[in-house]
What we know:
Pfam families: Aldolase (PF01081). Its EC number is 4.1.2.14. This is 2-dehydro-3-deoxy-phosphogluconate aldolase. Pathway: Carbohydrate acid metabolism; 2-dehydro-3-deoxy-D-gluconate degradation; D-glyceraldehyde 3-phosphate and pyruvate from 2-dehydro-3-deoxy-D-gluconate: step 2/2. This protein is of the alpha/beta class. It folds into two domains: 3-208, Alpha-Beta Barrel (TIM Barrel); 211-319, 2,3-Dihydroxybiphenyl 1,2-Dioxygenase, domain 1. It has twelve helices and 17 strands. The protein has an eight-stranded mixed β-sheet with strand order 11-12-13-10-14-17-16-15. Strand 11 (240-242) and strand 12 (246-249) form a beta hairpin. The two termini are 24 Å apart. The model has no long low-confidence stretch (mean pLDDT 97).
Amino acid sequence: MNEILQRVYQIGIVPVIAIDDAEKAVPLAKALVAGGLPAAEVTFRTAAGEEAIRRIATEVPEMLVGAGTVLTKEQADRAIAAGSQFIVSPGFNPEITRYVLDKGVPMMPGTATPGEMEQAMSMGLDVVKFFPAEQNGGVAKLKAVAGPYANLRWMPTGGVNTKNMMDYLGFDKIIACGGTWMVKKDLIEGEKWDEITAICKEAVKTMLGFSLHHVGINCANEAESEKTAKAVCAIFGFDYKPGNSSNFAGGIVECTKTPYMGTNGHIAIGTHNVDRAIYHLGLQGVEFDESTRKTDAKGKTKAIYVKGEFGGFAIHLVQK
């Protein structure tokens, strides 16, 4: 996948901004970054869009900024010159799509039908916008049409919000969701930057969905592992589940047959998407032990350990 689109996937949520005053672009971008969403699709629906992109690209370089509602070659040229790292359109125009691609800039044209999706694929695209998402059948439609399009992924935009966001992001063909709920006009005009940051943080929290998955206890050998797991089962009525390298008390307590990460053991934190969790925790300075990364057949990370110990325990992320 293109490097820019890979970042879109890792970020997971792309705020879609219609801004009327370019003076507000930089503080808005900084509010989004502080909230854990360092990405924006700034639409060309307003006269300030181009200048807003230019200011964000110049003054907030950590922000991944793209242009939306690009309908003409002239708009595409202006957006790219202003610093847009990707281009988005509401519909599929083959001429404009090819024009942007020929300039070496990632393009996500809007699609609503299998015919449009196939035309985009014929141009070498593997990521397209699905717009307007909810009005066009939502994630149910995407699941219905996904079968023949094994390599195609979507960024649904239009009607996506905190209530239905995970319906989309829970489908592995979704690269990210575009939305406006954290950058509504009244929030921008009122310069409510702290509120925008708070909404973004809540969206990221929902997207990652961290929760305790299980606790691992380091045991010296197989006999100690079995004894410990069965003792926990006897107390709490859990089912005993023997395994190759560990024995389990239900799905909550893992007793390793040989000591592994952590002096005492490990704490497994479940998340909706390990790759996105790695990216977002990385923004906070969290480091990971790459030697422990486990991936599935599609290359998605299933588990990875955080570097260091916490009270004698290692911590690792696992896919829910």
